[in-house]
Amino acid sequence: MATAAAPIAREPFDRTLLLVAPAGLFMLLLFVYPFLYGLWLSFTPKEGGALANYTHFFTTDNLWPTIWTTLRLALPATLINVGLALPIAFKMRIRTPYQRWVTTILVVPITLGTVLIAEGMLIYFGPKGWLVHFLQFFHVYDGTIRLTHNYTGVLISLVVSGFPFAFLLILSYITGIDPGLARAAATLGADPKAQFRHIYLPLLAPGLAMCFCLAFVQAFSVFPSAVLLGSPAGPTRVISIAAYEAAFEVYDYSLASAIAMIMGFVQLVIVVAVLGLRNLFYRGPMVGGKG
Amino acid sequence: MKSNFNELKLDAVTRRFAGAGGAAFNALSELTLTIRRGEFIALLGPSGCGKSTALNCIAGLLQLSDGTIMLDDTRIDTLPPEQRGFGMVFQNYALFPHMSVERNVGFGLRMRGVVADEMATRVAKALKMVQLTGQEHKLPGQLSGGQQQRVAIARAIVIEPPLILMDEPLSNLDAKLRIETRAEIRRIHTELGRATVYVTHDQDEALSLADRIVVMKDGAAQQIATPQEVYAQPANLHVARFMGYRNVLELDVESEEGDRVALSGPGIRLTGIRKLPLAGRRAHVAIRPEEAALADGADATNAIAGKVAHVEYCGRDSLVDVLTAAGTLLHVRSARPPRVGDTVNVHVPVERALVYPAA
């Protein structure tokens, strides 16, 4: 309140706050400074005015479409990951003997690197891979099957590596919801579907938005699998590949910085939009009354 | 879902749980009980006695291991909770934290497809009944514990269920609020004319609210009777102990004459009333502290002599601990407290010394 009198007691300075200093310094040196340096670099192109890199990006035919190429991969992958993780995590919320096994199996891919996953997928999904052999041997599908070196390959890899992440996040949100609320809803006439719709979904919505943001940022910065499993010259030429080429093939660090800034800006726009939607939902504790 | 019923019959309702080491134990064994229209039943017992299990079985939140539940002629124990249509008030209220008071109370009606106009009227009526008019738009987190409790009650009664189940609804409230809300619950019950099953571990609550009390221990019903009967004539020693018969002495049986039993022990001769057939030479006698009295030495009949060991002042009276010659401690309530060390006689009316067989 503006009219409040002098504070009754002055909080003494909490010296334990100084413990944050090393982390703060770390952030400053390794994140804030490089970011600001990159920003400055992006406005100092090799030739032309301050905005020359940005004009170049948005007028060059093999640069600006990378935004759409990346979004076309990242958005479906994120939706699939969150959409798949939600029902599975919902089923896994109750502690059962097999819950731990299922959870372990689902989470294993998180421990594998993207390169390892890509390697495995090339062997398994490739034109001479087990899956294709199996399908053709049993005449399930006899046409040509191409699951690697194209859009599908990158999408599958993004789902494999991104799903465990989404699953673990959503599982922790779901287990934080008091199961007594669903029981109460049941006694009031809500069948399991209605319990999910009216109790779990609204309480989960902020968590789902958060999960969507994190999964999206992860998918948007896809690089190794787009190169290894996609066709980096064509349909999976994502924005990070464009930045990489500018930096290490053309040696135009300034243009590369500008592309990185554009990439960050697109991520920011999506994240802010989703977090804005999140504010429409209830975001308090997820238990009903005294525990 | 019916709007009312004549009889809800529980027949040998049993619920087993997997215990430690895979051994199953009966959380509730063979509860047989008939609840009549408009009746107030209290399930009373210490924690772990199976009373909440019984309530959850009636609500449908737990499946039965054995037995049946019949609502008049309909078997309901196979139905999920949402098809039974009983209202339930949970111990921790279980209010939906993301919904306003109005939407919480209206939830059951929304699930039943009640139209908006009627819903508004009925929610307003229910909120008026629990005296929460004016709080419609608050979230549960903005209410006090007592108000949240009343929202939970309103939410359960607004659907006009034939049966209202309450699981220790007052245990989170302070003493004063508890007594007020208790009266409120009884008033609402009478006003609605619906049956209520009320779980509690507090004998005062059970005695003041219920038409009939089911006293439970270790998953089994010990006595099903009116509050007066449970209070004055406990069916067995467990019930007696739970209902405040704090003095339990094990004595020798001297003689039996009708219901009257003469008992003796070291330095004690006592006559009491037999409550259960006796087997063997030993028996327990149970005496309530407030039904014994300190008598003057000369005209003491049916009394036990001892020395005052401790006096606890309780306001209206005092709780006196008397140590008998044999070393047993007796508890007696007395308006005129003696001094510690006095020799006194603890007088017990014959009909208030209840005799049960020794286990």
Q: Average pLDDT of chain B, to the nearest integer?
A: 89
Name the chain pair with the biggest interface and residue counts per chain.
A-B, 27 and 35 residues
- Counted by DSSP, the helix tally of chain A is 12
* Alpha-beta classification of chain A: mainly alpha
Query: Segments of chain A where pLDDT lies below 50 for 5+ residues?
Result: none
Give the number of domains of chain A.
2
What's the SSE pattern of chain B? EEEHEEHEHHHEHEHEEHHEEEEEEEEEE
Q: What separation lies between the terminal Cα atoms of chain B? A: 46 Å
CATH class of the largest domain in chain A: Mainly Alpha
CATH class category name of the largest domain in chain B: Alpha Beta
Instruction: Tell me the CATH architecture of the largest domain in chain A.
Output: Orthogonal Bundle
Provide the spatial order of strands within the biggest beta sheet of chain B.
Answer: 6-7-8-3-9-10
Overall outline of chain B: elongated
- Which consecutive residue ranges of chain B, at least 5 long each, have pLDDT under 50? none
What is the total tally of β strands of chain B? Answer: 20
Question: Rg of chain B to the nearest angstrom?
Answer: 24 Å
> What profile does the largest beta sheet of chain B have?
6 strands, mixed
For this structure, the CATH topology of the largest domain in chain A is MetI-like fold
Q: Give the domain tally of chain B.
A: 2
Keywords:
heterodimer, A: 291 residues, mainly alpha, MetI-like fold, 2 domains, 65% helix, 0% strand, B: 359 residues, alpha+beta, Rossmann fold, OB fold (Dihydrolipoamide Acetyltransferase, E2P), six-stranded mixed sheet, five-stranded mixed β-barrel, 9 helices
Brief digest:
Chain A is an all-alpha fold and 291 residues long.
Task: Explain what the structure shows.
The complex is a heterodimer of chains A (291) and B (359). Chain A is mainly alpha-helical and 291 residues long. In chain A, 65% of the residues lie in helices and 0% in strands. Chain A has 2 domains: 27-59; 72-248, MetI-like (MetI-like fold), CATH 1.10.3720.10. The mean pLDDT of chain A is 88. Chain B is of the alpha+beta class and 359 residues long. Chain B has 2 domains: 7-239, Rossmann fold, CATH 3.40.50.300; 245-357, Beta Barrel (OB fold (Dihydrolipoamide Acetyltransferase, E2P)), CATH 2.40.50.140. The chains are: A mainly alpha (291), B alpha+beta (359). Chain A binds chain B through residues 178, 180-181, 183-191, 194, 198-199, 202-203, 281-282, 284-291, and chain B through 1, 59-61, 80-82, 84-88, 90, 92-98, 107-108, 111-112, 139-141, 145, 148, 152, 155-156, 159, 165, 172.
